[in-house]
Amino acid sequence: MSPTDPAARLSAEPFPIAGAGPAGLTAALALADGGQACAVYDARADVGERFHGDFQGLDNWSTSADVLDELGAFGIAPTFDFSPVCRLTLFDPWGREHTCRSAKPLFYLVRRGSGAGTLDHSLKEQVLSRGVPIHFRRSVELDQRGIVAHGPGCCNVLAIGYLFDTDMADGVYAAVTDRLAPKGYAYLLIHNGRGTLSVCLFDDFAARNLYLARTVEFFERHAGLRMHGAKRFGGVGDATRGPHTTRRGQVLYAGEAAGFQDALFGFGIRYAMTSGYLAARAVAGGDATAYDQLWKAQLGGQLRTGRFNRYLYARGGRIGYGYLIYRVCTARNPRDWLRRFYAPSSFKSFCFSGDRPVLRPYSP
Q1: In this predicted model, what pLDDT tens digit does every residue of 89-109 receive, in sequence order?
Q2: pTM for the model
Q3: In a domain, 107, yes or no
Q4: 256 and 199 in one domain?
Q5: Are residues 144 and 161 in the same domain?
Q6: Could you tell me which of 151, 165, 288 has the C-alpha nearest to residue 225?
């Protein structure tokens, strides 16, 4: 084959990855560790610019293995700041307090953004240490080959809140009630004098300021919230549609660009990184079509069940929200209970027809 042949020239160029988020950077690490030359492109000026140093949760219940061990198998070292969460304070729709305790971490608190210690910055440094170039302020259109991991393509979830300093003790709090977050939830995360308060809305976006004000007042009354130097933030996500585009020919889609997200509560970081790793495995194996089999085998059941759980949760109302809080807080092993709750089953599959649930809405 001649060096001027388009196919030869294409194979000689670094494999392109569009998006420097967790999915894209995980894919870059996996390709580099496998000896595949690649390059990352991102339209923003740095990693993590969708975020602001806010705390988020890295799910640790999806499998029996600890997520940090799973990331290690992907070639990712835990050089980012993280804190295991084994105790949650949850408030039901009537404002009653419940405590959830787990012997093993339910999730890890991590920070998102471009600053030192964030998950995004850590992944960037690890990718650069492998000799993979990251081209910021440069977007790339992929039509022949590549991995697309540039974030959500639509908005069906809205998160707004405050970042702040505080003298409060460390704690993780969440409240489920339509008065604060229609079909969603509100949370307060405190660690080492830093705090993140947020309301995640799945409905009624126009009244977001009202819900945020109510959430601040709620946590002041129920958790002793004290904020200093509060800065408001906001973001959007795609959490309810499920995988919608995962492959177009030799172009693979990973992370939120493909719809890999937890439809129930938005714990999607693990899904994003796993999908990036699986996309890289398909590329390294020389068969892009294998990506469909890989992600369906490892993530398909959980994603499908997440949409089933979201459907029931959105229609459960106060009784449904309260029942979920009760079950997770009274479980002997909350981590195992959540894993079973998210696991696929024949009943959940039976209740779906295609991508739409066929259950009748539940009206308590």
Answers
A1: 999 999 999 999 999 999 999
A2: 0.91
A3: no
A4: no
A5: no
A6: 165
